[in-house]
Amino acid sequence: MLRKAALNTGIFFLYLVSLLPFWFLYGVADVIFLVLYYVIRYRRDVVKLNLTNSFPERTEAERHKIERRYYRYMADLMVETIKMITVSEKSLRKRMKPTNPELVEHYFKQNRSIIAAAGHYCNWEMAALAFGLLTTEKRIIVYKPLTNEVFDAMFNRVRARFGAMLVAMRQTLRTMIALKNQLTFSVLVSDQTPNMHEINYFTTFLNQPTAVFLGIEKLAKLIDAAVIFYRIDRVSRGYYTYTLVPLIEQPKLTTDHEITEAHVRYLEKLIQEKPQYWLWSHRRWKYMPEDLSK
User: Are 48 and 111 in a shared domain?
Assistant: First the structure.
């Protein structure tokens, strides 16, 4: 009971912080960067290892530059995510702009639903919030629940502020079947790490054997949805664009793993272009193919 009360107090504090203006929050982010990078050295070993394995062709100095830029951006990402709790629709539209929203109507006029792959790249939380403004048809965000139920509920309330429907990963198939006769636009984060018992496929991603979910591929074939990539680009501090990039028009005509390889390769290319915006502190490579035979 006391723990829940403390968590609720923490959430109320985050709400108060979110009321602060962006310019002030970015001053806080500058301090957060110094603390994360130099004082507590948050997961520096994980980031360094991930960068070394992902970019063996780059020099140590080049990887160190990416590392510092990543931590600077992570500090910005933290305060921007807090700001999402109370950001207005007007401010959100100004800071997260679509470049080709007409693509949604293009598919809907063909009576085609849409499934978008996204990555932990740039501000995916702000993009998820803006996703709710793209259309009035059913908008679905598939998410992996947090272990902390109080914070999980808070994040879901924030993500659903502008009309998106939150669906836990385990409920995705059931939800899609229930909505198969409706037009839907669904977003799934494609670079999550499967649990050991969920691994069915490995691919090479950033020079390493990587376990990936096949959910996007399975769902697209099930409901014959067009598959796109939800690309986010940082324009300047606090300002982004997002682009809907067509990947697969006819999923039922694809071979096994073709859809999965399409969105994995697109994300990989995006990361290679501007690596500082991906979530390097995540332990993405927990399992290797040999682990499955143990």
Answer: no
Q: Is residue 22 part of a domain?
A: yes
Nearest CA to 46 among 224, 280, 286, 294?
Answer: 280
Query: Among the residues of the chain, which ranges form H helices?
Result: 2-18, 22-34, 44-54, 60-83, 89-95, 102-108, 124-131, 149-159, 172-178, 215-223, 258-273
**Strands (DSSP E) found in 146-257:** 165-168, 184-189, 202-205, 208-211, 226-236, 239-248
Pairing relationship of beta strands 208-211 and 226-236 according to DSSP bridges: unpaired
Tell me how far apart the alpha carbons of residues 167 and 161 are, in angstroms, rounded to a whole number: 14
DSSP 292: G
pTM score > 0.90 for this model?
yes
Are 253 and 163 in the same domain? yes
- Using CA atoms, how far residue 244 sits from 28, 45, 92, 207, 209, in Å, is 32, 34, 18, 26, 27
The structure tokens 């970015």 sit at: 26
Distance, in Å, from the CA atom of 52 to the CA atom of 114, rounded to the nearest integer, reads 36
Q: Same structural domain for residues 144 and 80? A: no
* Amino acid identity at 224: D
Question: For the segment 262-282, what is each residue's pLDDT rounded down to a tens digit?
Answer: 999 999 999 999 999 999 999
Residue 74 — φ and ψ, nearest 5°?
A: -60, -35
Same domain, 43 and 177: no
At 37-77, the pLDDT tens digits run: 999 999 999 999 999 999 999 999 999 999 999 999 999 99
